[in-house]
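INFO  loader      accepted 1 record
INFO  loader      residues=147
INFO  predictor   begin
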Amino acid sequence: MRLPSTLFVLLLSAFALVAPGFAAEKKTGEKKRYILYATFLNDTPVELSDGARWMMDRGDSFPILMFKEQQTMVVLQFAGTQFAIETSRVKVTPGDEVTPEMVATYRRNVAGYVDGKSEKILQELKPTKEQTAQKSTIKGKKPVPRF
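INFO  predictor   done
INFO  writer      dumping tokens
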């Protein structure tokens, strides 16, 4: 009759090892994202994956997507694009140490990038004077003045 008591002790031991993990998971309730940020140590020119060239200022911060080449390169997120830079040019900051100023610099840079992109797209879509003249002289008719 030793078998049931040994089995009971084993089950109790297994429960004692597993229970703290379940309790800790319930306390937090939600999964916490672990984010690293990189802050530039000097002014640095970069080329984004979409071909745009930017000058990053000292103190600009960006979320880290990944490390490459045995952590000698770091890939940073910038709006909908990304760029790689040498790890020695940035200071890596864990997500729980990120300051509101770091997030503000990232948001300011993203706003500038988006504004520049939208301006470029609008310029590409804007018809030239020749195109508008062609539209107004359809089949030999004189252009109608617009007020």
